[in-house]
Amino acid sequence: KAGVTQTPRYLIKTRGQQVTLSCSPISGHRSVSWYQQTPGQGLQFLFEYFSETQRNKGNFPGRFSGRQFSNSRSEMNVSTLELGDSALYLCASRKPGTLQETQYFGPGTRLLVL
Amino acid sequence: DAKTTQPPSMDCAEGRAANLPCNHSTISGNEYVYWYRQIHSQGPQYIIHGLKNNETNEMASLIITEDRKSSTLILPHATLRDTAVYYCIVRSNAGGTSYGKLTFGQGTILTVHP
What does the angle CA B66 – CA B67 – CA B68 come to, to the nearest 5 degrees? Predict the structure, then answer.
């Protein structure tokens, strides 16, 4: 079974630009969560999507947004990029509805903002 | 979700067992203990999880104390490839808006040396 895939794997942008990252969950997993990892703040939860609806949101500004499509694939968008947005962006998928569900992570997209 | 406490770093000799402790003294009855690890700049990898019974899989064993206030992840025969940051996470599987959110602490940096 294929794992969680994320594209692109690496990205360089400049301040003020916007970026869109993509995540394809494990087949059958209908929930996708996004995380940001920086050296200073560690791994922080951004938001979760399930059935094309945002179900939960972390403490990030409105410049960070996301969406989920009917095939469960998800995208996250960061507008007006700042230097501090440089990070590893991770997505994780799970299969809601099972008692002992587990989140499985993708390899991440490393974003560098210059 | 309950907060966890882990030592910042540990060393282990290759071939020996690595025992990684985690304190979760405020854990509640419906909260599971999850362990993930992250090898440098990769996405976190799920290792194992449990509720109150000890668990074992092909990667590791999880020992949870009877009062459930602490647990130990055991890698029975550590190899150099087990060098990683290990995260202990406590999370409810009972549903609700926090269902898809994992709260990561700083984890334990395990270094396996020859």
Answer: 90
